[in-house]
Amino acid sequence: MNELFEAAYYSHPVPRSLASLTLLALVFDKLHFPGVYIPESGIDEVEIRKEIDRIKKLGIREADDVVLLNSMEWVLQAKHLRDFFIFTGKYGHPGTLQPGAEELAKELEELIYGPPPPNFFPIFHLGFSKDLPGDKEASVNGPSWLTYPANALVYSANHGLVLVNDNPGMPVPSLGVQQQRTTPKS
């Protein structure tokens, strides 16, 4: 039997730590990152490291800055992880979302921050994109920190994959399927 045990990573567009990656690699054969594009080749590693340092010196201003920097760091590791990581995004398509993910991201935002005040309509970035030093497809792009988990949730449901969350503080919204409670008959 040659079946693989695969999962969709939920909490971030790339793992936030090597510890998470190590544990996930012990359990799963492949890990999907829906809508994220990381090139496997054609990059200039020295110049990417310089660009990461330059951006860090500017200071982290928002959650998507962290997502971008973490994604750029993983670009440097992609050649070692190509048999384990499945990045389903395409070059030049930031914020590529599964149908229904944007609406689910709105629910996720409410789970994190609570309901918005009356007459307030929150907006959020759908994705990120950054050209990198290297060939013409040296780039990193994907859904934003808020749309990514929603995208991963829909993707995992559509592809029959286990959803893996290594961030206990990240809520998981429902896809709208309500379970009926059954009361035992006496």
How does this model look, in words?
The chain has one domain. The N and C termini lie far apart (46 Å). The protein has six helices and six strands, in the order βαβαααβαββαβ. The protein has 186 residues and is of the alpha/beta class. A hairpin with a 7-residue loop joins β4 and β5. 36% of the residues lie in helices and 13% in strands. Strands 3-2-1-6 form a four-stranded parallel beta sheet, with helices on one face.
**C-alpha Rg (nearest Å):** 18 Å
Number of distinct helices: 6
Total strand count, please? 6
Strand order of the largest sheet: 3-2-1-6
Q: Briefly note the structural class of the backbone.
A: alpha/beta
Series of secondary-structure elements, N-terminal to C-terminal: EHEHHHEHEEHE
Could you name the ranges where pLDDT drops below 50 across 5 or more consecutive residues? 177-186
Summarize the amount of helix as a percent range: 25-40%
Arithmetic mean of pLDDT: 86
Total individual domains: 1
Overall shape: it is: globular
Strand content: 5-15%
Measured between the Cα atoms of the first and last residue, the distance is 46 Å
Largest beta-sheet details: 4 strands, parallel
Q: How would you concisely characterize the structure shown here?
A:
This protein has 186 residues and is of the alpha/beta class.
Which properties best describe this structure?
186 residues, alpha/beta, four-stranded parallel β-sheet, 6 helices, 36% helix, globular, disordered C terminus
Helix and strand layout, with pairings?
Layout: E1 6-9, H1 18-27, E2 30-33, H2 45-58, H3 63-75, H4 78-81, E3 85-87, H5 101-113, E4 127-131, E5 139-143, H6 147-159, E6 162-164
Helix pairs in contact: 5-6
